[in-house]
Design brief:
By secondary structure, the chain is mostly beta strands. It is about 10% helix and about 15% strand. The longest helix is centred in the last third of the chain and has 10 residues. The mean pLDDT is about 95.
């Protein structure tokens, strides 16, 4: 788990509530060099690309379709924000905590997510291709139809993750433990599952085109029957 971002530098004078903010307003705040806390603020569609907002807190903000391309957002905290179609391409979200947020169909391509934690979020259709993801953690998060190629979940405890129809090509799940997860109809091409415990995962729709990738993984008897049924075999 990533350490909690330090927000101790945020003073009462640095807290803004229920404001409509555009680029010029946010840029003026960022020039102070101190983190700010935005509560219930509207930044929908704002161009915030390349701005420096390290250590800021975004609480119940509307950042739908906002452009954070190349922005500095390390050690930020995001709580209950609405951010559908937001663009974080190439931004730095390292060591950040993102809780209860809706970032459906958002773009995190090439984003630095080192030490970042997503908890109880909606990331349906999100694109995390080419993201830097060392120690990235997800908990109880919806990742259906998301693009996550090449991510490493090695030795992770995966709790409440919905990967339904997600692109997981070349992901590393070695020694991972799945609990209340779904891999239904996901793209698992070239994934590795050696030593993984898959008993807590929905494996519906998976076709064993390459059974070797599951060698050494643990599944239940019911799951074994389900996988054989996908091959057209009857289990009696």
């Amino acid at each position: 788990m990533a350490p909690s971002p330090d927000t101790s530098q945020i003073l009462p004078s640095n807290i803004l509530e229920n404001r409509d903010l555009d680029r010029s307003a946010v840029e003026a705040l960022s020039k102070s060099g101190l983190p700010h806390k935005l509560i219930g603020c509207v930044l929908e569609g704002a161009d915030l690309s390349r701005l420096i907002m390290d250590g800021w807190v975004f609480e119940a903000c509307n950042v739908k379709q906002a452009n954070f391309t190349g922005a500095k957002l390390s050690a930020t905290v995001w709580s209950c924000c609405k951010g559908g179609l937001a663009d974080f391409t190439g931004s730095d979200l390292s060591e950040s905590r993102i809780e209860g947020c809706d970032f459906n169909n958002s773009n995190f391509r090439g984003t630095t997510l080192t030490g970042t934690q997503f908890d109880r979020c909606k990331l349906t259709g999100a694109n995390l291709s080419e993201a830097k993801t060392l120690n990235l953690a997800f908990n109880e998060t919806r990742l259906a139809d998301a693009r996550l190629p090449g991510l490493s979940f090695r030795k992770a405890r995966l709790n409440g993750l919905d990967f339904q129809m997600a692109d997981l090509k070349k992901c590393d799940f070695r020694d991972a433990v799945f609990q209340d997860c779904s891999l239904r109809d996901a793209n698992l091409a070239d994934c590795r599952f050696e030593g993984a415990d898959l008993r807590g995962a929905d494996l519906g729709g998976i076709r064993l085109l390459n059974a070797k990738q599951f060698k050494g993984a643990t599944i239940s008897r019911d799951q074994a029957g389900q996988l054989l049924a996908e091959l057209g075999l009857k289990v009696r």
